[in-house]
Amino acid sequence: MSGGEGQGMQAVWALKPLADMSDTEFHDWRVLLEDRIGMVIGEQRRSFLQANLSARMRELGVADYASYYRQVTDGPRGAVEWSTLLDRLTVQETCFFRHRPSFELLARYLPERLAQLGERPLALWSVGCSSGEEAYSLAICAAEALRATDGQEPFGVTATDISQSALNKARAGVYPARRLKNVAPELRRRYFEVQADEHYRVVPGLAARLCYARLNVLDLARAPLSGMDVIFCQNLLIYFRRWRRREILNRLAERLAPGGLLVIGVGEVVGWQHPELEPVADEQVLAFTRKG
Prior knowledge:
The chain is an alpha/beta fold.
């Protein structure tokens, strides 16, 4: 087949509506996603999965879900396509200071924590950082806490996500104005530079505080992170089964330094306890501190 014919076939598939996903195909995709990244796709999210798969299949000119499944699972070649597909399924639009009460809690916690640390650098971690808004929000909170005490101590924010594309966006640090809707005007002036087309870039001094790494939370046992003062894990656990949520939280608890703070999305886990953690008394936030 010539190149022109191949492009013509792709154009036909791009226009032709795809058949609904069969129960067998749905089952195979559900198993693949849960095995690889822990994501649970229930029947109520079947349309979400089908819409994202079909959009990518049209781009590639793939006619059916079974064929695309074989392509995604085809060794090294499939790994590249798998990475592209993950961006469609896991990267959702977010914003700075998305859950205000969580960051208000952090703002109250940090001054006391900084007084305890002495000369040790403050270490914060955004788990499932997506395109970086949460990680930069943590950095702004840390910078503001140090500024209030005229402190010059260093701090660092580790930002991890399974999507390499999301991490690349976080590294770029450029965001449309709508993502900054919760950023106070004074903080916007201090930590962002105005760009063209109503976009904002994180100032270099703040961006330098962040370190990015690709991480599948199913591999937390092998993550070389420990002694964290703050861990934020919000809007991530909802994708996992209850037993896996608890497993992830247990791993994160192990990474906290004594006195460290773990902040979880409200309603993402119910009834979880850890012998080394104490719940924070705040009705608007689900958070824990490590004993000692």
